[in-house]
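call fold target=Na+/H+-dicarboxylate symporter
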Amino acid sequence: MRKGKFLTYMALGVVGGFLAGGFLPELSLKTAFIGELFLNALKMVVLPLIIVSIASAILNMKTIEKFKSVGVRALLYYTMTTSIAVAIGIITVILIKPGVGFSLNGDSSFNREMSFSLKELLTNLLPPNLFKALVDFNVLGIIVATMLFSLAVLSIKWEEKPLLHKLISELDASILKLTGWIINFAPLGIFSLIAAKVASIGGAKAIVPLLISLGKYVLTVLLALGIHAFLILPAIYYFFIRKNPYAYIGKVKEALITAFATASSSATLPVTLKEVVGSGVKKTVAEFTLPLGATINMDGTALYEAVAVIFIAESYGINLELTHYLIIFLTATLAAIGAAGIPEAGLVTMVLVLQSVGIPVEGIGIILAVDWFLDRCRTAVNVLGDTIGAAVISHGLEEVKNGRVSP
């Protein structure tokens, strides 16, 4: 579907969903199964997408030596900035509380008693049975197992590229195609989900309170993204490179504009490469770190998911404890690694974060009303993180080469 038409259909789905839920509540509830089918499709593809995306990103490093020299630095940088982004998102949403004062309890049927322990969280990182982990949606364990298995394959000195690498690449392309098909049905799914949700919480009288709550939610996300993009990432750039970060951002602005326009890190990649190399980053480093970053470095997406999940929990009246915030922090950080660089892919991985703390996945139906806009904002932040990461890693390797720091 062409991007212009897709945006138009998304807008129509949002507006139509509010109108149908407000003025045709009975019909909206009867057609709610369409939205459920859309959510089921997202759930169906989420684990294969995570597993294959992570495996593909690691295997594309080609050798364990390259992983040790450049890959480790890249992964450390990506993990650091993504963790900071998620922390900013969690702190911001806790302070503003955009979901407090609006209730989604009209049709909720979930267990409010959520018991988690730190011991359980840590032991789940290494599941004894991978098939059971898949069935139980043990996201953290699946991600860790995928990383370990991929590194094991990468460490073996094959005489030629292993068949498994080719298989993973083909699966990656196929799953991305399938995900794209599912996202093409997002306007219809959004229409049904919003209509059913509005109908279930009171129809027309709930529209204004809902819009006010969504407005607070959008401002919360934008504030958190702004802090990360204009304060944290520039500070990291200056700390490592000791140059004006905003001058560098000005040099790569075309990539950021393209990211906002396309809502896709992958589609922006050619522009990002050109802009980053043109700004002085070593081409060999850029050609390695940027494609990797477009796959696994999703600062904006991880931040957004943390805010969205806590907002949905607040709207359902769920009181989260410290352990739940820790689970959200870890799951959002790691799930972002497997978020495909395509429009609306964050919706897929958000299912993982919601299920990790037992929050109803149906709550996604409300935030879909504004996701088309926030998707562009978070993608621009994702790409900004990639460009600064390439500069920092390139500078670090140059320092090592010149003997100014120990490798």
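return ok
The chain has a mean pLDDT of 82. The domain at 3-401 is CATH 1.10.3860 (Proton glutamate symport protein).
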